């Protein structure tokens, strides 16, 4: 059996869904999706879902944090050992407005790319997966994939 692990950049996943919803409201029904069930549907015969690793950061806003927490808790309850949340964090970064020179605080996500990279490489080193499926639009994650392809020849 080929063991498959999905590594999901939660920030990219959520904002991709949000952009789709802005174009077509039907996408709103997927805000409460069973992540494991979704990715399990992509597996072919002879493949076994090892785990879905969902990488995210806790929003600074209480309302957003509560909604995200409910979504993640629901997925953890539904999928227990096959769904894992790995958290980075948000930091507020100061920017200067180029027009009025006011100080603007903007949240910036930290550690997610590094956490994804480390986890993919660790799972290869520990031989806990055969196939890596990365769900992200972030090109910063290309170097760890290239390393895995070069140094772990039996991994897909």
Architecture overview:
The chain is α/β, with parallel strands linked by helices and 156 residues long. Helix 4 packs parallel to helix 5. Helix content is 40%, strand content 29%. The model has no long low-confidence stretch (mean pLDDT 92). The chain has a 5-stranded mixed sheet with strand order 4-3-2-1-5. It is globular, with a radius of gyration of 17 Å. The protein has helices at 10-23, 35-40, 62-79, 112-125, 142-151, and strands at 2-9, 47-57, 83-96, 103-110, 131-135. The longest helix has 18 residues, at 62-79.
Keywords summarizing the entry:
156 residues, alpha/beta, 5-stranded mixed sheet, 5 strands, globular
Could you write a compact summary of the structure shown?
Strand 3 and strand 4 form a beta hairpin. The protein is of the alpha/beta class and 156 residues long.
Outline the biggest β-sheet. Answer: 5 strands, mixed
What structural class do you assign from the helix and strand content?
A: alpha/beta
Number of strands: 5
Question: What strand line-up does the widest sheet have?
Answer: 4-3-2-1-5
Strand composition percent: 25-35%
Secondary-structure element order, N to C: EHHEHEEHEH
Radius of gyration: 17 Å
Unreliable segments of 5+ consecutive residues: none
Annotation field: number of helices: 5
Q: Choose one word for the global shape.
A: globular
Cα(first) to Cα(last) distance is: 14 Å
Helix content: 25-40%
Indicate the mean pLDDT: 92
């Amino acid at each position: 059996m080929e063991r498959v692990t999905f590594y999901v950049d939660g920030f990219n996943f959520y904002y991709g869904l949000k952009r789709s919803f802005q174009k077509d409201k039907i996408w709103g029904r997927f805000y409460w999706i069973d992540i494991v069930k979704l990715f399990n549907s992509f597996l072919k015969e002879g493949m076994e879902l090892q785990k879905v690793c969902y990488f995210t950061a806790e929003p600074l806003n209480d309302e957003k944090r509560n909604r995200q927490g409910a979504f993640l808790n629901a997925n953890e309850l539904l999928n227990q050992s096959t769904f894992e949340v790995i958290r980075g964090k948000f930091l507020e970064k100061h920017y200067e407005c180029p027009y009025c020179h006011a100080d603007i605080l903007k949240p910036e996500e930290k550690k997610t790319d590094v956490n994804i990279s480390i986890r993919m490489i660790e799972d290869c080193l520990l031989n806990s997966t055969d196939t890596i499926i990365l769900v992200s639009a972030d090109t910063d994650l290309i170097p760890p994939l290239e390393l895995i392809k070069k140094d772990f020849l039996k991994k897909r």
